[in-house]
Amino acid sequence: MGDRSALRLVVLDRDGILNENRDDYVKSADEWVPIPGALEAVAKLHQAGWHVVVATNQSGLGRGLFDMYTLNEMHLKMNALLAPLGGKVDAVFFCPHAPEDNCRCRKPLPGLFEDIRVRFGLDDMAAVPAVGNTLRDLQAATAVGCAPHLVRTGKAATLDDMGVQALRDQMPGLVVHASLTAFADALLGAERKKHRATRAEGKRLASGGAPAATSTPTST
Ligand SMILES: [Zn+2]
User: Fold this and answer.
1) In a domain, 219, yes or no
2) pTM
């Protein structure tokens, strides 16, 4: 089954991260409108070898505002727009319930993230960044140990600095990004830096340990 620790997986919220939020719910494929740059960011992650999955509350299903056929149409549109960019969302995990259903998958509860963990066979989610635009996205993510990332689009676009600070206070380790592009660049940049450090360490060990040990004293 390969090396699980090598699996690179990122979990994104949908509305407000990939597509524009609507106060009256995104109810059709036509209303699924990508946030500028977001799909390009997904493509960048996908091409770098990351699995991109979505975890989203879709209570519009439970409220009868749209049906499963329509939800599938939205996600077909999403992947159809991603394909020419060289991007892909591997899977969409969604909660179809209304709040009064008292399910275990509606964020901030961690059911969707637990499903993702099981699906990908991960023992631990510490290496899995999760991106959201609301506190409840981040609460669901950190409940299973994911690293929380706030992107300031969607509902987080209107947060002022005090609002962001309030989130930081509630969410230790929170990383804040201006856009999904900024998130992707930060993630891939950190990965490149780690690889460079690993290669440098490999060279150092191959050359016989610490540089000081490679030169023999000339005086006796
Ligand atoms: Zn649910």
Assistant:
1) no
2) 0.89
Q: What is the amino acid identity at position 216?
A: T
220 inside domain: no
CA of 60 to the centre of ligand 1 (A): 11
For residues 93 and 34, what is the distance between their CA atoms, to the nearest angstrom? 18
Tens digits of residue pLDDT in 66-114: 999 999 999 999 999 999 999 999 999 999 999 999 999 999 999 999 9
106 C-alpha to center of ligand 1: Å?
Answer: 4
Q: Which residues participate in catalysis according to the annotation?
A: 13, 15
Q: Does residue 202 form part of some domain?
A: yes
Helix locations, the chain, DSSP H: 38-47, 59-62, 68-82, 111-119, 135-143, 161-170, 180-206, 211-214
Q: Please, are residues 183 and 148 in contact by the beta-carbon 8 Å criterion?
A: no
Q: Which CATH number fits the domain that encloses residue 95?
A: 3.40.50.1000
DSSP per residue, 101-130: G--SSSTTSSHHHHHHHHHTT-S--TT-EE
Range of the domain at 92: 4-214
DSSP string for 67-99: -HHHHHHHHHHHHHHHGGGT----EEEEE---G
Bridge partners of 91, per DSSP, are 53
Tally of domains within the chain: 1
Would you say residue 13 lies in a domain?
A: yes
Q: How far is the CA of 35 from the centre of ligand 1 (A)?
A: 25
Across the strands, what pairs with 92?
54
